[in-house]
Every structure is written in structure tokens, then in C-alpha cells.
Fold these 2 entries.
Entry 1:
Amino acid sequence: KPLRVAIMGLGSYGKRVADAMKDCKRAKLVGLVSGTPSKVESWKKEFGIEDKNCYNYQNFDQIKNNPDIDAVYVITPNGLHKEHAIRTAKAGKHVICEKPMATTAADAAEMVSVCEQAGVKLLIGYRMHFEANTLEVVRKRKAGEFGEIKFFQGLSGFIIGDPTQWRLDPVLSGGGAMMDIGIYSINGARYMIGEEPLWVTAQEVKTDPVKFKEGIDETITFQMGFPNGVVASCLSTYSMNYLDKFFLNGTKGFAEMQPSTGYGPIEGRTHQGPLTNPHVTHQTTQMDEMAAMILDGKQAEIPVDGREGLKDMKIIEAIFEAVKTGQRVDLV
Ligand code: NAD
């Protein structure tokens, strides 16, 4: 029996996930949640969804009475994740929630506790955590093939277009590039180094205060200090393209990946040679693996649960505080 999933938020990423799920072996798209009836009509036809599995934001809570849906994948703007995830949990359905899981660490913590109390899983849509070349580098690091890890660099950014989109609205986004794309460098540092940061420092550059208003970061450089003495040096930006790169350096070798988080093939090499795992659509692998986690209790090699997402939210908040104060911020 597959994991029967409803997608909430039929936007551009929702469509990408729905398309990717066509190739899933363990997960199946069976339901829709949308405020736009015309989208529901066209998706229903394209994906063969039954009427009884379609909801809007008003009648969504009735999903609790629908035995044919196991999980809801929340793919709405960041500022709505908390409400949407909590309503899903209270309806007794497992929650898969896009990144960033919330717009504050307090909201993320509340989501974790509501899901735990409701006895449902909360998984964050971290697709890189299941990608084959990424996992290969992590396995090599765990096996000591890079020796002692000394340094990580993460570069994450793109030039954002339409100035009216929700990503540039602080209420719906919770922040700018950091919440959207900088989070990949935070994730990368944590899974590549294999430790949790103790402190952060950060600096912000804003060249366009009209497009990037108060509460929307344009470019932030940040550093994270780890218990083993490693410092990760990272860049998050909405105003430069061609920034999708990870570099991990150790006493016996290195790994470099570029692109490191884009949708297409993840390419790179280590001191031992190129990374050669074949590309599989990330969201297909992610949804099959998440189905195995929910249905069989399988453990992810790199965790993607709500508590992991909460760690990232705490780091993001510390980065924002470090930008504001100019001080090093300790993560307890
Ligand atoms: P989008 O704007 O294309 O889609 C958002 C959807 O939410 C739209 O269908 C919109 O109608 C709906 N929506 C519901 N209530 C809304 C409201 N009050 N205001 C605005 N829209 C509302 O955005 P997207 O690119 O699909 O991003 C959605 C989420 O997915 C975000 O959290 C984003 O960070 C995440 N995302 C993740 C990845 C990834 O690789 N994991 C990639 C892209 C986006």
C-alpha cells in the first residue's frame, strides 16, 4: 500500500512535486488542497484525483474524516506553514512541510510539539538529504576518507525576479534569501561536517532597499563555528546568480559540489575522483523515502524531521541577530 498524499498549495513547487510523484513507487498523489477552483479542476484531470479528496482552505479540517489520505504535503508560502501544518496534525494526518518549516524558531517548536502530541510524523521537505551524490560524500566523511574535517564553504544564491512576489513580503516569507536559499548552506554545513554549530557571526549587504525592504535580507555572509574547531563560511543572496556550491576540506582530502543543491544533476568530485551516481529527480526519491519513513519507520541517513528543521530555524534566527548586533551569537 502506498503513502497516500494530498498536496496543499498548488503553486510552482507543488506542481514540481506532483510531477515527480508520478514516478514514485511508495508515494501516491491522491488529494488536493487549494483556494483556486480552476487549479483544482485542471490538476484533478491531470493527476486523476477524485472529487472527494479535494479541499479548500475553509473545509480542509474535514480531511480528518477521510480515511483515504495519510499525509498532507504543505507547499504554501513560508508564513502559512505553521497554521497549515498544525491544522493537518490536528486532523490526524502526517505532515510533510516545505522549508523553511516556519518563519520563527518559536513557531517551529510549536509545530514539533503539536505533531508529537497528535501522534503524527512531521517531516521537512529537505530533498538534498536523499540525493545520492550528497549521501556518498556524507558516507565518505563518516568513513574518515577526508581525514579530520577542517573547513566548509557554502555558496547559495540567485537573482530574484518579480518584486511583488510573496518571497519579498516579510509576513509571508519571514525573511529574504536566508529563509529561501541560504538555508541550503546551513543544511550543507551541518550534514557535510556532521556536527552542530556552537556560534554564528554574520554580515549583511543591502544594495537595493526598495526591492529588499525591512525584514527581507538581500545578501548575508555568515560563519558558523563547530565543536571540532571547523569554521563554515557561507553566502546567502538574492542578487547574484551562479552560486550553488559546497566545498569540504579535510586533512586527507576534499569534496566539491557544483551544483550542490539545484534541481538538476548534483555534480562534483572528491580527491578520489568524480561523483558518478546517476541523477534521479530529487522529489521522486524524497517522496519514496518519506513514504518508507512514515509507513515502515525507516530512519533517514540524514534526518529530516521537525526537530532538525527547528535546529535550522534557530540558526537562522541567530544569524539575523548577529547581523543586527554585529556580535557573535552563541547557540545553546
Ligand atoms: P508559489 O508562489 O509558486 O506557490 C505558493 C502556493 O501557495 C500558490 O499556489 C498560492 O496560491 C498558494 N497560497 C495559498 N495561500 C496563499 C496566500 N495567502 N498567499 C499567497 N499564496 C498562497 O511558491 P512556491 O515556489 O511553490 O513555494 C512554496 C513553498 O515551497 C515555499 O515554502 C518554498 O520555500 C518551498 N519551496 C521549496 C523548494 C525545494 O526545493 N524544497 C523549492 C521551491 C519552493
Entry 2:
Amino acid sequence: SSATAAPAAPAATHCPYCALQCGMELTPVEGSASSAAAVAAPAPGGRAPLPVAVSPRDFPTNAGGLCQKGWTSASVLGVPDRITTPLVRGADGELAEATWDEALTLVTDRVRAIQDRHGPEGVAIFGGGGLTNEKAYALGKFARTVLRTPNIDYNGRFCMSSAAAAGNRAFGVDRGMPFPLTDLGGADVVLLLGSNPAETMPPFVQHLAGARDAGGLVVVDPRRSATARLADDGQGIHVQPVPGTDMVVLLALLHVVVAERLVDADYLAERTAGYDDVVRSVSAWWPERAETVCGVPAETLRVVARRLAAASPAHGGRGAYVLTGRGVEQSAQGTATVTAAINLALSLGLVGREGSGYGCLTGQGNGQGGREHGQKSDQLPGYRKIDDPAARSYVASVWGVDPETLPGPGKPAVALLSSLATPGGPQALFVHGSNVLVSAPNADRVRERLEALDLLVVCDFVPSETARLADVVLPVTQWAEEEGTMTSLEGRVIRRRQAVEAPGQARSELWLLAELARRLGSDVHFGTDPAEVFDELARASAGGPADYSGLSHARLDADEAVGGPGLYWPCPATTAEHPGTPRMFLDAFGTPDGRARMVPVDHGGPTDDVRGDAPTYLVTGRVLQHYQSGAQTRRVAELDRLVPEPYVELHPQLGLRVGVADGDRVRLESARGVVEAVARWTDAVRPDTVFMPFHWGGLGGVNRITSDAVDPISSMPEFKVCAVDVIPVTAA
Ligand code: SF4
């Protein structure tokens, strides 16, 4: 059995949600006598008392803070519609309870039949960036060795793939933040592009205090978000470009840096390659021209460029950081836009230097680790390329299989979902920890593909929109019910610890994959003990860019016991214990010659044409109270009460023009379809732009109308900008 007795003592663990992985302690609650009764009191709606009380821990990323999501996270353990038994769709079309044996027998028989008919690639897997490192690793191994299918990808493709592609290309290795988050506090300037941490990860904001005090917080966002308001109050600058033109802002900033001779020439000569081509690529983007495209005043662009340069070490500043988030990354030119940000940081000599740098704010809880262990279509554990013969041989030797049997690269997420149930495409899909019906772009098309499958198996702990469509639902353990590791947005490997027993028949995916492997006749070993799986993962990663080979659960526990804050990869197994690598690239980049690559890029603009029938930009984003597809947070009564439904933010000028008053219902129509929600007037958005959070499905599920055009390099979809028509909903 995968179940182990839950400890009675408090468990030092981390929040189940975002990549900040705030430290928290979970104290099991025994009856009503608990000292933590305030948290353990019956949840609203008369639910059973929560099994644990949450309290924040002093961990470097959160320094004792938690956001509303973290404070209420224990509620997810006790949601009333928790899936506690396998469910199988019967002849009547309804999901009905089944035993594990019945469910797995059905799954195994159907997988066999489908693969007999369609070959190994007839079955696909869609994973998640919230899975532990151990589960992400086991999933990739299961796909390649048991199913032998190339068709595995995951929702991280929607999250950080363009930043990862740009980072890999520039630095030879991608670690979202190649420095500890706490380093940000010492900088004079932080340039934050397309990120809203004041809502998505509020405790992060304390790390911006140094830059705010220095008047150097610069937030680039078409919307005056909660984070932009932090810069707008005299402690920085809010740059508000036309949606989809962040690239132009970056090209113009670099133009100013070059034209005013603010570059770090020594650094460029010693540590980079490709600068001359990049100079040529920005020569035409003088600020006045950029202003005509991005709408940002030329003088603002000059001021930002000069402030950034003045903060750089070359000019005697305390340091500067350039940080990107989904706002600039979720674009069909996402890799190019992040490359423009990296070019700017490199020109100023910021990267690979203590106190300055470039980083990407990864969003999902294990968005970093999730991309390193092999659930990505093009990668093997250790963040190795799947088409690298040496990597294939090595990983195959750890798995005990012939490298010739390992499939090659599979389809990235959008292509994978689009190919489901098409001739030659997968006819069966396993979904692990992902709610694609809400989180994938052009989601109605995804629904069509899922409905056409011969077999849809969803492994989850709540009946998400996607789970409700499944032929078989398998109940899995979550967060505080299991042991494992996660890797924070800074590459810090941390322990997730069990605090409570899983309810009913919920089992870990590690057990599930081992059981399926056995039933499918595989002789490849799949461990069910997370510590054992981690040891294998660490071995498989040895020598790769993301080298975990010097780490183990025991070492991470020992480090934490003496107050250590987790260990950063790369942490290779060496004779003397390797200390891990908090700061990367201090001596050399991960490229063959140790130099960072500067790659010229240019502005292409959004794929949708914002004219004619659809004259308004739609941008999407998040709210403080909800996480990703909302499958968890919409079930937390306190959070649901605060933000119970989707809404459309629009500027009063636009509202007046199209006849939509504050509080009216409004319809947005794109080339993909239609959504409807309540309108909120606000001057936080531009008059040419509407904003919608994406945490819901149904009528107000905004991803039903977002674009599934993808970035040619990373396959990141263009979630962030699409063209819509804004239409009043008149009473029938
Ligand atoms: Fe921290 Fe993120 Fe959890 Fe909020 S959701 S408590 S910011 S880890």
C-alpha cells in the first residue's frame, strides 16, 4: 500500500499552490480541543472540521507571510465533493463508483486494445506542473517505457515554456530564477514585465521593497494591476503598453541603452556572443517610433532605460533585475519577447552577477521541477533533450531498458490536444493534475477532441470540469496527504510532507503508475516510496543540466533540521557534499563556450487582427483568491464567497461606447467563440482593452475564446492577447 500513517506532530511543509512555495506548518487537529480551533472550526456551510490547522513558517520566500489561498488551503483537504473512490462511466452515461481492480482492469484492457490497433502512440498523457518531482518523473518514465508513446506533454507548456526556451537558448540552461529570491531586496531597480505578484503571490512583494524605496520598481503591464499600482504611487513607474507590444518596449529600451552608450562593454566582450547583431536589430526602434506602436511615451522609455542602466554594476549602482511573467511569455512571440528582455539584461551586464540578474516568475507550484524530470514532450530527466543520443543511453541505463525502445520527441500540448481522436492521433488520454477544459486555449475545441476519444482517464482529487468528462476517474492523493519534493521558482528543492491520511480509496499516482505498469506486463521497476523514487530521479538526472544527484529526501530533511532553506540544483553527487548552487552563471554560462548567446529578435505583433469585427483587445489574468483553473480554490468557501464568478473589466469610455453599464452582463466574441459575464467598469484597463480572469469554465470560461496560435519555438499558446467584439447582453 502507498498509504502511511499520518504523523501526529506538526508537519513543516509548503503551500499547495504557487511556485513561491511559502513555508507553512500543518498541525493535525484532534477534536475541538485544538489550540488552532480558529482555523479548525467547522468550515462555512456546516462542513466537517478541517483536519489540519495552517500556520505560516519563516521560510525565505514568504518570510512568515501567506496569502488568502495559503491561509485557507486546509479546506481543500475537506471539500465535500472530494473523489474518494474510482469512478467508471456506465452504459447509462453516468459515472458510478467502482473498485480499483474494476477500474484498472477496464483501463488496462482498453489501453491494450487501442495500442494493438493504433500503435504505442495511440495513447497519450497530459501531466501537470503541480505534481511533485517524483510523480512528474514517474509519469515521464511510464510514458516512455510502459506505453512507449512519444505523446506526453503537460500544462507547464501553457505556463513557462517560452521563458524556458529563451533561457535555454541564451544561457544553455533554464532555471526560472538563477538566484535566490531574497537577492532582489538589495537592488535599486526591478523591471517587472507582465507579472502581477501582488495578486498571484502576494508574499513576493516584500522582496520588491528595496527597489520601491529607491523609486525603482518599474511594472510593464497593459492593465493597472495591483502590482502596477505599487509602482504608480510615486515609488516607481507603471508602463502601460498596448496589449501585445511588450516586445516593442524592450527593443526601445535597448535602443536607448545602446544609443546613449550605457552598455557594459567589458562584460559584453568577456561573457556574451552575438551583441553586434542585436545592436543592428534595435537600431530602428528609437523611442518616438516605438511610441507609435506601443503607446508608451518616448520620454518614459528613456527614463526607464536610464534608471535601469544607472542601477547596474557597470555604473556603480546597487544592482538591477529584469523579471518576466506570463503577460509577456504567453504569446505567439513569447520566446522572442523573453529573448528581448534577456538581451537588455545582458547588454547592461546584469546576468551571472551577484545582486543583479534576469529571471522568470514561474507560476505553478512545481512549474520549475515539473519541467525538469521528463513529462515534457521533448525532454528526459535531468532536463536533458530527448533527441540527444548520450542522454537517451544514460537515462535508458537507469531505467533498465534498451535506448532504441525509447520514443523520440512528442507533440507539445496544443498540438497534442488538437490531434486527439484524429486519424493517426492518440485515441486515449490520461490526464494527471490538469484541468484542460478550463486552462487550455480555445477550450471548446479541446472539449470536442476529449469527447471524441475512445478512452479518457482523469486522475484527480476533485471532480474538475475535465474529470467530469472522463470515462474513468481515478482518485489520487493530494498535497498534505503525501511525501515528496517540489522545486520552487528559484530552483530550490524542498520537501512536501504528509500531515493527514488520504480519505477513502485515494492512492498516490506513484502506486497507480506502478500498478498499471504491472498490469500492462512491463518488467520496468516503478517504486511507490517517494524517497526511493527521488533517489532514482536523482540518479537519472546525474550529469544533466538540472542535476539532483547530490540530493535525497534524507539530505533535504537534515538540511532543514539545522535551519537550512532547501538546496538549489545543480547539486551533483561529489565526494565532498556539494552545497547546491543558489546563484548560477557567476563564472560561466551553460553554453559550450561559457558565453551567453544574444539573439536578434523583432516585433511581429499578435496573431489576431484587432480591427473590424473584433476591435478590442482581450487580456486574461488571475485574481488573488483563485489559483489556475480554480478547480481547488473555487471549492474553498471563503475564497468562492469573495470572488464567486468571472467578470469582464472594461473602461467606462468603452462601456459608454458599446452600451454596457457597470454591473450589466456583457458578451465577448472572438474568432473562436463567445463568453458572457458581468461587466465591471474600471479605469485600470485601457479604453481599447478588456480584461477577464480565467479561473472558471462554463459560460464565463474565457479560455473558450482565447487563441491557440502558438510560438514557433516553444509552442506556448497566445493566451494573453486576442481580438474581441464587446456586445451588451440584452434581456430576451
Ligand atoms: Fe504563498 Fe503562493 Fe501559497 Fe499564496 S498561493 S500562500 S503566495 S505559495
